[in-house]
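Protein modeling request. Please complete all fields; requests missing the sequence field cannot be processed.
Requester role: graduate student
Desired output: 3D structure, token encoding
Chains: 1
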Amino acid sequence: MRIRTANHAGTQPDREQLRRIYARQFRETAQLRRHVLSLLPLHHAQTVFEPGCGSGLLGRQLKTLTDASYTGMDIDGDILPEEDGFEQGDAVKRPLSASICISSFFFSSVKDPVRWLKKARTNLFAVVAEYDYQAVTEEPDAGIITRLRDSMGLHTCHGGRLDSYFLKAGFQKLHGGTVTGIPCEPDMDFLHMHLKDLPEKLPLMVWPVVWGIWKKNRR
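Delivered output (219 residues):
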């Protein structure tokens, strides 16, 4: 996942704050992630590429599940682990070739997913998790999600449209769905990173998570 490089105050985000957000997302999607990864032929893959690998949590897990050569790329070099397999770079502009491409909370950083997917040189693409920001609900309605979508500096309309994007880019869907989750209080680190003023009583929010596996059509 990539979060914009400046918060609502125009300053650089705190890297420890980012790590806490990434760790929370990793915990929340643990069961879904195990399911998605169990459907992938990781033992037969030669190379695995993870665009927008963040602090490397998914990458470290992947490296324990496959002997394939793993490369995780993130534009934020300060968040990357100082370990083999992780490199700083702009995966939006320069996706690497791989047997399997695996992403998590990445597509909100991509302006034109169809164009990007057409550039992605891979036979199999797995989206482990992607928020459908347009389907997030809050009770009572405090307008927080609308403000978040406006302030994040990301392309928040993509999560619910992944099927269409992959189809237009020449992929066939093998598996996928949406996990709605349960109502819960929002992550304060996440809110403070993007919003200045918060209501005294926060609403309960539901964050739908989209996942899927797509295979590149043969020409």
